[in-house]
């Protein structure tokens, strides 16, 4: 019996209506990306006169040339790489051993440690005390401060801990017979077996580091240290209201709009590159962490 | 039974000796939590002090509830508090159902390839930074060059100043938040739908149920526990709004509808350096948040017999 025989006419209409509405949602999700891409390779005059709707008009790479010749663009791009990879490495180096220790049921004080971590999900001191604490620690305007200050969070620790707890006892016992130390056990048995959870947490860290702007904007003073998102924020949000700057970018070749579109495309590209991997792991990881705990 | 202290220390030292490696692995993480999340809690006391950054936390004199009194007398704080609640409620009404609808719709797509592509696209905005989203919104809604006003112009509608008019802030904020997160938020409902037993659909089909009836009578009731849990989490987070996004989108002319407690804290504390007053506002918010989350968890434990943590 084929599937179409199963359905009445009403069912088929339901199917079409569903597909139509969903397609509408998907297209409206996609459209801003297409528009930004089209605007970034169109001439400034075409964009400001409203002639770019879906396809590029008067194709030119002038906006990209302008952006790629900007020194601050490269500095902030480099900084974002430092914060993303330095921060993620730091997060994993602290959270993996910690979560592993917490996953050992025999560990004395385990309940108390778990509670200390879970409590931060419900209550935190907030923006100002966190800021003053960073200041007291001498971590204002510091690259290291950005990397260490946001290294852990309770959600990721719990996700890793749950995964380590689910590793079958037999693996552990075999390694123990060979007289492995805890570090060897973690490195040779638990980490290889927990790859999905670790990749998930790593991706969480990478995405939040790549996209984060708020604390970098608050904590960093030096121009040389700001990440890409802060640079973007300055150009897109702060300068948008600054007519003088906006009009200084207005030439026949490129305009304020095409420049910002080009910067946005340049900052989205790395996200698009890791996105296929992210998609594979994220849906699993969210369920891992959320439901079990 | 009397607890004997010497026994306690005896077993403690045995445990420490046996598991010293584990404690060594645990130490950096616990130190991190103490230094970066618990130490600031000690700094919360400045909500009750006349804090000066030069005197430091300890040396600043106590003032009791003076800052809280000042806050409740401050029309701007009261406004920020009500804006927070209002924006949250509007989000609950308009944004909360969208991922549920999306998941139900995805589930009805027969073509596996089309379904996978559609999901890939709607998850994507979740991975884009709020700065870019704000950039797109500002770009699209620009009165002179934005595509939205260009299209409105085709129908002879005069340009609308979406971002400078207070009545437009909330629709713009909630609409663009749906664009960014609804797709990704549907994942949890899709997982719940995947857990529905296929035999339910088979027997319904034998009974001659239409697809619409199956959605309404089988799928939706089966994912109701998930919906309730998500709703409770959402209510628990009622005083949290996406302030990092609001900061990018609001401006003085829209503060009236856009300024929330977190943005108020940011402006008075970090930009205006009234640290003590801003900390008091933050503490007020955090206590309400704590009560809400705690209550939400208690209710969830009752209704679904699964607590959230």
UniProtKB/TrEMBL annotation, chain A:
Its main location: membrane. It is found in: Cell membrane. The keyword Lipoprotein does not apply. The chain crosses the membrane at residues 12-34, 81-101, 113-132, 144-164, 185-210, 259-278. It comes from the Bacteria. Keywords: Cell membrane, Membrane, Transmembrane, Transmembrane helix, Transport. Gene3D superfamilies: MetI-like. This is Sugar ABC transporter permease. InterPro entries: MetI-like, MetI-like_sf. Residues 77-275 form the ABC transmembrane type-1 domain. It is a multi-pass membrane protein. Belongs to the binding-protein-dependent transport system permease family.
TrEMBL record, chain B:
It is found in: Cell membrane. Residues 81-296 form the ABC transmembrane type-1 domain. Its main location: membrane. It holds the Pfam family BPD_transp_1. The chain crosses the membrane at residues 20-38, 87-109, 121-141, 147-164, 215-235, 277-296. InterPro entries: MetI-like, MetI-like_sf, UgpAE/MalFG_permease. SUPFAM superfamilies: MetI-like (SSF161098). It is a multi-pass membrane protein. The keyword Transport applies. Keywords: Cell membrane, Membrane, Transmembrane, Transmembrane helix, Transport. The keyword Protein transport does not apply. Belongs to the binding-protein-dependent transport system permease family. This is Sugar ABC transporter permease. It comes from Devosia nitrariae. The lineage of its organism: Bacteria, Pseudomonadati, Pseudomonadota, Alphaproteobacteria, Hyphomicrobiales.
């Amino acid at each position: 019996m084929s599937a179409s025989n199963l359905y009445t006419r009403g069912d088929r209409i339901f199917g079409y209506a569903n597909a139509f509405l969903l397609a509408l949602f998907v297209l409206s999700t996609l459209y801003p990306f297409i528009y930004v891409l089209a605007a970034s390779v169109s001439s400034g005059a075409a964009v400001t006169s409203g002639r770019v709707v879906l396809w590029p008009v008067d194709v030119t790479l002038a906006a990209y040339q302008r952006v790629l010749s900007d020194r601050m663009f490269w500095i902030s791009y480099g900084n974002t790489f430092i914060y993303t990879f330095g921060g993620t490495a730091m997060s994993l180096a602290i959270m993996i051993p910690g979560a592993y220790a917490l996953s050992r049921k025999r560990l004395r004080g385990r309940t108390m440690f778990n509670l200390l971590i879970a409590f931060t999900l419900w209550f935190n001191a907030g923006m100002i005390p966190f800021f003053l604490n960073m200041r007291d620690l001498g971590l204002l305007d510091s690259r290291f401060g950005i990397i260490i200050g946001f290294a852990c969070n309770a959600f990721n620790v719990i996700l890793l801990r749950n995964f380590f707890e689910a590793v079958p006892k037999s693996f552990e016992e075999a390694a123990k017979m060979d007289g492995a130390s805890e570090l060897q056990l973690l490195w040779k048995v638990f980490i290889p077996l927990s790859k999905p959870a670790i990749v998930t947490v790593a991706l969480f860290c990478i995405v939040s580091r790549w996209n984060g702007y708020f604390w970098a904007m608050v904590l960093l003073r030096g121009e040389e240290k700001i990440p890409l998102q802060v640079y973007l924020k300055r150009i897109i949000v702060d300068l948008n209201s600054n007519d003088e700057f906006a009009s200084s970018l207005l030439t026949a070749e490129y305009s304020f709009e095409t420049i910002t579109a080009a910067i946005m495309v340049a900052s989205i590209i790395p996200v698009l590159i890791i996105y296929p991997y992210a998609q594979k792991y994220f849906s699993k990881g969210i369920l891992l962490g959320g439901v079990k705990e | 039974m009397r607890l004997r202290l010497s026994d306690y220390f005896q077993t403690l030292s045995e445990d420490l000796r046996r598991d010293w490696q584990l404690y060594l692995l645990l130490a950096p993480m616990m130190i991190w939590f103490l230094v970066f999340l618990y130490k600031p809690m000690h700094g919360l006391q400045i909500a009750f002090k006349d804090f000066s950054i030069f005197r430091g936390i300890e040396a600043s004199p106590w003032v009791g509830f003076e800052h809280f009194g000042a806050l409740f007398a401050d029309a701007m704080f009261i406004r920020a508090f009500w804006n927070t609640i209002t924006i949250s409620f509007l989000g609950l009404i308009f944004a909360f159902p969208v991922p549920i609808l999306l998941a139900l719709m995805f589930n009805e797509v027969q073509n596996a390839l089309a379904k996978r592509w559609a999901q890939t696209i709607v998850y994507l905005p979740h991975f884009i930074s709020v700065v870019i989203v704000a950039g797109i919104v500002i770009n699209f809604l620009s009165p002179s060059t934005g595509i939205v006003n260009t299209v409105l112009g085709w129908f002879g509608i005069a340009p609308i100043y979406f971002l400078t008019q207070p009545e437009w802030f909330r629709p713009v904020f909630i609409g663009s938040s749906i664009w960014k997160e609804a797709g990704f938020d549907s994942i949890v409902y899709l997982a719940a739908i995947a857990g529905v037993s296929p035999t339910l659909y088979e027997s319904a089909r034998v009974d001659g149920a239409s697809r619409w009836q199956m959605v309404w009578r089988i799928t939706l009731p089966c994912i109701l526990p998930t919906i309730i849990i998500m709703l409770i989490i959402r209510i628990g987070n009622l005083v949290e709004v996406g302030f990092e996004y609001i900061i990018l989108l609001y401006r003085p002319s829209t503060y009236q509808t856009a300024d929330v407690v977190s943005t108020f804290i940011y402006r008075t504390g970090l930009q205006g350096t009234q640290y003590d007053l801003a900390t008091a506002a933050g503490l007020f918010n955090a206590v309400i948040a704590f009560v809400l989350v705690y209550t939400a968890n208690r209710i969830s434990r009752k209704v679904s017999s699964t607590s959230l943590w």
